[in-house]
Amino acid sequence: MADVMDVLRQHAKEYTLQLNAKDLQLQQELLELKRQVLAKEREIKFAGEATKRFLDFSPSLAGVVQCPCCWILWQVRTDLHTVRGTADADEFACSACGSSFTVEI
Ligand SMILES: [Zn+2]
C-alpha cells in the first residue's frame, strides 16, 4: 500500500514538471514576441521617415531616371529602363521591383 505522503509528493512533482516545461515554452514565446515588437518598431521608424526619403528623392541621377518605388519603400536607388516610347508617352520599368511608370509627353 502506497504511502499517502509519497503519492501526494509524486503528484506535486508531476505538476512541477508540467510547469517547468510550460515556463520554457512561455519564455520562448516571449522572446518571439519581443523579436516581433522590435521588427514592428523598425517598420514604424522606416515608415515615419518616408517624407525625408521623398525630399531626398532624385528622379534622375547622371541622366538616368530612378525608380520612386524602390527609393521610398526600400531606400534603394534603382535605374529605370525604357520599355517603350511613343509620340504621346514614354513608359519606364524597374527590373528590381516590377513597377512601371508612364509619362505622357
Ligand atoms: Zn523599383
Helix- and strand-based class? Answer: alpha+beta
Rg measurement, Å: 29 Å
**What is the distance, rounded to the nearest whole angstrom, between the alpha carbons of the first and last residues?**
97 Å
Q: Strand share of the residues?
A: 15-25%
- Figure out the total of helices: 3
Structure report:
- With 105 residues, this protein is α+β, with helices and mostly antiparallel strands.
- It has 2 domains: 1-48; 57-104, no CATH class.
- 56% of the residues lie in helices and 18% in strands.
- The chain has 3 helices and 5 strands.
- The protein has helices spanning 4-48, 50-56, 68-74, and strands at 60-61, 64-65, 81-85, 89-93, 100-104.
- Strand 4 and strand 5 form a beta hairpin.
- 2% of the residues are buried.
- The structure holds zinc ion.
Question: Which structural traits does this protein have?
Answer:
three-stranded antiparallel beta sheet; single chain; alpha+beta; about 100 residues; 3 helices; 5 strands; two-stranded antiparallel sheet; binds zinc ion; about 20% strand; about 55% helix
Fold blueprint:
Elements: H1 4-48, H2 50-56, E1 60-61, E2 64-65, H3 68-74, E3 81-85, E4 89-93, E5 100-104
Antiparallel strand pairs: 1-2, 3-4, 4-5
Summarize the structure.
The protein is of the alpha+beta class and 105 residues long.
